[in-house]
Amino acid sequence: MNNEPLEIVSLIRRAQQGSTEALGTLLDEFQGFLQYVAEQEVGPLLRKRVDGQDIVQQANLQAVKYFGQFQGQTAEEFTAWIRQVLKSVINNAVRDHGAAKRDIKKEQPLGGARNSQASVSWWEPAASQTTPSQRVIKGEEAIRLTNAVQQLPPAQRETVQLRHFHNFTFKQISEHMDCKLSETMRLYRLGMQSLRRALANSSMEIV
Questions:
Q1: Using CB atoms within 10 A of its CB, is residue 190 exposed (0-12), middle (13-18) or buried (19+)?
Q2: Overall pTM > 0.85
Q3: Are 86 and 61 contacting, i.e. CB atoms less than 8 angstroms apart?
């Protein structure tokens, strides 16, 4: 995975100048983050009917269609805009499937009006006799992390996401994935090894 600076501002400028290649690259950089947001905001009831990747794909199509309306210049402004596009797609999916409300537990702060950076809530497993801690990874690091997670093989990706994005225990992950605890832990270990390699040249410390 490329660990060079993402140069989002440059991509925004070139896309606004008419470069479809720059716009495609810009959207590619946000795929992992959009998938993360979709998984956080779409509850299990709707998730049975609508695939999160389909929602992200629809958001991409809408972003291409309406990019001319985006007037910002910064990564923070683009993050806020693309999240609004995604939110609109999610709301439409809720309406189309007859759900009056999104079936979600408490929404985690994903970057609101005060801070429109891309942000990811990352749960760090608890040590013995302690409670787990949560840290928020922001900006380009959040984009880089979510993209790296999305590159993992599906089973490894799911174990890492459930462990660190949703704070599941290994027992809960095993039950959710319907596989043996030993296999769950093996998949998680492999996923974390791959994730650390992918982020080796970044400033992030992944535990």
A1: middle
A2: no
A3: no
Q: For residue 110, what are the CA distances in angstroms to 3, 121, 181?
A: 23, 8, 31
- DSSP for 22-87 reads HHHHHHHHTHHHHHHHHHHHS-HHHHTTS-HHHHHHHHHHHHHHHGGG----SHHHHHHHHHHHHH
33-70 confidence digits (pLDDT tens): 999 998 888 765 566 667 778 899 999 999 999 999 99
* Backbone φ and ψ of 81, nearest 5°: -70, -45
1.10.1740.10, 1.20.1250.20, 3.90.226.10, 2.40.160.100: CATH of 8-96: 1.10.1740.10
State phi, psi for 94 to the nearest 5 degrees. Answer: -60, -45
